[in-house]
Amino acid sequence: MECPEGHAQLVEVSYKGVLIYECPTCKGRWFDRGELKKAKDRTDEDLRWLDFDPFGPEADKYAVPASTEQKLCPRCSLPMTALTYKTSGVTIYKCPRCHGVWLSHGEFEAIVSYLENVVDAESAPELAKDAGKQFEKVLVGPGGEISDIRDFFTVLKLLEMRLLVEHPRVAAAAEKIYQYSPLK
């Protein structure tokens, strides 16, 4: 496979435990279908519930107008389309046929940083709503996948931590109740 930016042959590498292709010259990365999400989830467990499907209906609103710069899919040689990874400002390229994603050097790290900022900005009430949505996915989702259950528990953990930060007196009271509880 050729680098979409025309530098060199892509080389298979293990990145965050996921086999992807990387250009040895420009350090751009090719993620086959689903590998971007896997790499993101393995980079920071707290981000696993923040999903963005570049091929889902939500992605259309992040489309970037076509420019003169055309990148061809390294897998099937079709022209790729550009879109922004949500509101991150990071432009990614996706192949409409094979559903792979191309990120230029540093863009994966920029996406992770963006997602970390999203988590940091969430208040306890927002995280409580997110936990409810994740719980609903577990109950009425397509199959109650293990990943949905993990996502739910991740948001619960983040909610607990946020409550401890936003309400230290409640956290101290809960700790005292736990200390003296016969149900330990």
H and E order: EEEHEEEHHHH
How many beta-strand runs? 6
Strand order of the largest sheet: 1-2-3-6-5-4
Overall pLDDT level: 89
Overall description:
With 184 residues, this protein is of the alpha+beta class. It has two domains: 11-120, no CATH class; 122-180. It is built from five helices and six strands; from the N terminus they run E-E-E-H-E-E-E-H-H-H-H. The chain has helices at 35-43, 107-121, 124-140, 146-166, 168-180; strands at residues 11-15, 18-22, 29-31, 81-84, 91-94, 101-103.
Provide keyphrases for this structure.
single chain, 184 residues, alpha+beta, 2 domains, six-stranded antiparallel sheet, 5 helices, 6 strands, 41% helix, 13% strand
Give me a quick take on this structure.
By secondary structure, the chain is α+β, with helices and mostly antiparallel strands. It contains 5 helices and 6 strands, in the order βββαβββαααα. Strand 1 (11-15) and strand 2 form a beta hairpin.
